[in-house]
């Protein structure tokens, strides 16, 4: 099974897997996010156009909120 | 405008006032954010006096919570209990408090020896009192003694007069007395915004988790709005002193009451922030439309919304209490700041609500909130997914002076005890207190306010209830310890921590008890996986509590720091800290005081007070490792039901995180092993945090640390020498 890493945890890779799909699969609904793919910052406007390959290291950093 | 079926008569109330003491004083302009004196009131002896604030006090304690802790330390001894006459309520704004060019600058901080914990507690609150007090000439007010009869303390900051009145006719409950104070002390309707009142209610008299209500007059709604200093039972202490209200009148608001060093710089920083807020908020937390209630569905999505006494973190009924519902119920389009100039506008309000129960049934009222904590506590944790119940209970908790968090978490504990047969209808007075029972819960709330029935028992708080249920009803004390969500005697606020070790420490290692205002690390830890090692977590549990302590020193609200962020925050080196906003705070502090601190000195200011407060805990018989221990429900699944509900997660962790193969093991064995690993991890976390903070392995600040911070004061050393020798 092909996978990617999201915040250090493996996630099954899918064809045409973009950032929006990753967020959906992980149920990441919080709005204040910083997304990086292999160290490169992805702006929110680029989420739908950014496709990841198997083995990609994706960071979806949720900025501290709450409290 | 509230509509009452039994209106009060302000003239009759005023006529019954009997003057007990009076002090006239000269009002002097502030000097760079400070008035350089504090006000001392003893309601038992009818004494009114002042104390100077010198440079040493400012250097070591900065202001706000720092001043409060210093004054409280001087007022009490190691033998003082919460109900001792010498115990104090101390209220202050900090040096940054009251500026109107930047959001979130109107906070008061309140301190005292807590009825819930027996140790010093701090609680912050909006409303106008703190800034008005400072502009009236006082950096802080101490309230000491116990009055023989109900009194009101009145500070007239326009004329320089302080009075103590005997006050027999005022209502005690806050929504009424806050309006009555406006009617009595304001010149006319336009002047009502000059009146700020601190009060508690009948529930504060009859529970250990009474809150304080701080008012501000809303000219558009024509009501006195209420914000709460909720945590730690300070309302209980207030009513124990027989104080009905502390009122401050100040009508001289201008752009520079703080007499700052560089007003233009503050205006520039503020204008930039306001632009950012208007541009980004709708896309981020939407604070201006739903306030902190935006978090309800987010917490549910991440399995963090405490449900049924923190057993679970999500529930399919959550949409019934989500921000979509609150957006509809909150009046939109009316400015909702709890201090002048706050463009965040998150103090949301339900207007025109007709009360369905209790002594004010049928009255039409405006209700502040609910905030996230209240919606989560009443809705998910008590299992009552009904917004109308939440609003009704929110109103009564506020006006009765009851902390919604302690009430909600306390009731959730009661409900689990009820469902486990620890208590029954015979004990509760015939009430079925199963999860989800809103009507019965409101009965408990009204009973608590009247000081009657099982409702009064609920008001003991979880720590005392655990003892009672074990001793009187033969309950298993270990099970009660596992499910009773309190630490140091304070009920947990509304976040699930099972999957975030760092956040377990955020609650357990907080100085005052289980409140999240020192550190909220769940996303960094559980979701982002940014702080994987004990040392990483310890660093976060050093930086964030110190950074957030600074808000309490200065009179600031935390929300503008990170509930809206610059568009380019993601591109910075350390986005979780929001570097641009930290720079704003440094710039504003320097522009007010004329000093030249940097972000490192900011943390040092906090460290001085934070460590002083830890030693203060030690002085009062707390402040060591045993008091930092948490209920197991905070760390993992107490019951097999909880384990089974997330069985895949827990089994996977056993194998991958702890290197223990769960295959072929019984549910009981996996459940027990999970507990062993998680409890061991919490101990290791404590070790790492103590080391990072410069404390010994028992959680006591080292003498070298206090010297390094220049906080090796004689009283501090006396406490530490006793411990170390």
Short key terms for the protein model shown above:
heterodimer; A: 1 helix; 5 strands; globular; B: 725 residues; alpha+beta; Aldehyde Ferredoxin Oxidoreductase,  A, domain 1; 3 domains; seven-stranded mixed beta sheet; six-stranded mixed beta sheet
Explain how this protein is built.
The complex is a heterodimer of chains A (about 70) and B (about 725). Chain A is mainly beta and about 70 residues long. Chain A has a single domain, classed as Ubiquitin-like (UB roll) (Roll), CATH 3.10.20. Chain A has one helix at about 20-25, and strands at about 5, 10, 35, 40, 55-60. Chain A has a five-stranded mixed beta sheet with strand order 2-1-5-3-4, covered by helices on one side. In chain A, a hairpin with a 2-residue loop joins β1 (about 5) and β2 (about 10). Chain A is globular and about 35 Å long. The termini of chain A are far apart. Chain B has about 725 residues and is of the alpha+beta class. Chain B folds into three domains: about 10-250, Aldehyde ferredoxin oxidoreductase, N-terminal domain (Aldehyde Ferredoxin Oxidoreductase,  A, domain 1); about 285-485, Orthogonal Bundle (Aldehyde Ferredoxin Oxidoreductase Protein, subunit A, domain 2), CATH 1.10.569.10; about 545-565 and about 595-725, no CATH class. Chain B is built from 31 helices and 17 strands. Chain B has a seven-stranded mixed beta sheet with strand order 1-9-8-13-10-11-12. In chain B, α2 crosses α3, α3 (about 65-75) packs parallel to α25 (about 600-620) and α20 (about 500-510) packs across α29 (about 665-695). The longest helix of chain B has 27 residues, at about 665-695. Chain B starts with 9 loop residues before the first helix and ends with a helix. The mean pLDDT of chain B is about 95. The chains are: A mainly beta (about 70), B alpha+beta (about 725). The interface between A and B is medium-sized, with 21 and 33 residues.
């Amino acid at each position: 099974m092909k996978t990617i890493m999201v915040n250090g945890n493996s996630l099954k890779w899918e064809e045409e897997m973009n950032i929006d799909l990753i967020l959906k699969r992980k149920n990441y609904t919080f709005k204040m996010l910083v997304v990086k793919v292999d160290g490169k910052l992805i702006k929110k406007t680029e989420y739908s156009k950014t496709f990841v390959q198997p083995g990609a290291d994706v960071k979806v950093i949720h900025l501290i909120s709450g409290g | 405008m509230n509509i009452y079926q039994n209106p009060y008569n302000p003239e009759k109330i005023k006529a019954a006032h009997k003057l007990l003491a009076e002090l006239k004083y000269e009002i002097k302009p502030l000097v760079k954010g400070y008035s350089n004196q504090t006000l001392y009131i003893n309601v038992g002896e009818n004494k009114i006096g002042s104390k100077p604030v010198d440079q040493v006090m400012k250097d070591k304690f900065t202001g706000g919570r720092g001043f409060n802790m210093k004054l409280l330390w001087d007022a009490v001894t190691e033998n003082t209990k919460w109900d001792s006459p010498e115990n104090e309520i101390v209220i202050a704004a900090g040096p940054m408090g009251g500026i109107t060019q930047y959001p979130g600058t109107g906070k008061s901080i309140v301190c005292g020896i807590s009825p819930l914990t027996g140790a010093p507690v701090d609680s912050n609150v909006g409303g106008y009192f703190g800034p008005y007090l400072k502009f009236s000439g006082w950096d802080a007010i101490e309230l000491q003694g116990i009055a023989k009869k109900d009194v009101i303390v009145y500070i007239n900051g326009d004329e320089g007069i302080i009075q103590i009145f005997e006050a027999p006719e005022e209502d005690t409950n806050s929504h009424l007395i806050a309006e009555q104070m406006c009617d009595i002390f304001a010149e006319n309707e336009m002047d009502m915004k000059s009146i700020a009142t601190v009060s508690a209610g009948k529930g504060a008299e009859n529970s250990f988790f009474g809150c304080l209500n701080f008012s501000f007059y809303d000219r558009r709604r024509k009501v006195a709005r209420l914000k709460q200093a909720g945590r730690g039972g300070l309302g209980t202490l207030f009513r124990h002193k027989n104080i009905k209200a502390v009122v401050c009148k100040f009508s001289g608001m201008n752009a520079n009451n703080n007499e700052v060093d560089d007003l233009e710089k503050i205006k520039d920083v503020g204008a930039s922030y306001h632009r950012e807020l208007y541009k980004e908020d709708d896309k981020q937390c939407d604070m201006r439309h739903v306030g902190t209630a935006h978090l309800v569905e987010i917490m549910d999505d991440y399995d963090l919304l405490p449900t049924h006494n923190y057993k679970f973190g999500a529930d399919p009924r959550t949409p019934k209490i989500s921000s979509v519902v609150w957006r509809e119920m909150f009046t939109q389009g009316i400015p909702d700041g709890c201090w002048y100039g706050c463009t965040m506008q998150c103090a949301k309000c339900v207007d025109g609500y007709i009360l369905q129960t209790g002594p004010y049934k049928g009255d039409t009222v405006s209700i502040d909130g609910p905030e996230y904590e209240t919606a989560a506590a009443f809705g998910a944790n008590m299992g009552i997914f009904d917004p109308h119940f939440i609003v009704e209970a929110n109103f009564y908790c506020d006006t009765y002076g009851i902390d919604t968090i302690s009430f909600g978490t306390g009731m959730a504990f009661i409900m689990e005890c009820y469902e486990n047969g620890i208590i029954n209808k015979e004990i509760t007075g015939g009430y079925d207190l199963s999860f989800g029972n809103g009507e019965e819960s409101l009965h408990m709330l009204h009973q608590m306010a009247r000081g009657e029935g099982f409702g009064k028992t609920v008001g003991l708080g979880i720590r005392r209830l655990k003892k009672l249920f074990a001793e009187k009803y033969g309950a298993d004390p270990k099970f009660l310890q596992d499910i009773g969500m309190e630490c140091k005697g304070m009920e947990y606020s509304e976040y699930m921590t099972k999957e975030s070790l760092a956040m377990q420490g955020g609650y357990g290692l907080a100085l005052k008890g289980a409140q999240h205002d020192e550190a909220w690390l769940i996303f960094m830890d559980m979701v982002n996986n940014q702080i994987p090692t004990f040392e990483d977590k310890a660093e976060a549990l050093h930086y964030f509590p110190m950074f957030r302590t600074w808000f309490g020193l200065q009179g600031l609200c935390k929300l503008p720091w990170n509930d809206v962020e610059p568009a380019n925050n993601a591109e910075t080196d350390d986005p979780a800290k929001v570097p641009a906003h930290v720079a704003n705070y440094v710039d504003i502090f320097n522009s007010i005081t004329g000093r030249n601190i940097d972000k490192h000195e900011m943390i040092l200011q906090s460290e001085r007070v934070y460590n002083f407060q830890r030693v203060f805990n030690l002085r009062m018989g707390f402040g060591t490792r045993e008091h930092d221990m948490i209920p197991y429900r905070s760390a993992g699944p107490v019951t097999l039901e909880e384990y089974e509900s997330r069985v895949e997660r827990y089994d996977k962790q056993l194998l991958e995180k702890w290197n223990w193969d769960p295959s072929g093991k019984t549910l009981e064995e996996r459940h027990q092993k999970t507990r062993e690993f998680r409890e061991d991890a919490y101990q290791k976390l404590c070790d790492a945090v103590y080391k990072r903070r410069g404390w010994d392995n028992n959680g006591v600040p080292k003498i070298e640390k206090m010297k390094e911070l220049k906080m090796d004061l004689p009283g501090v050393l006396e406490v530490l020498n006793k411990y170390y020798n």
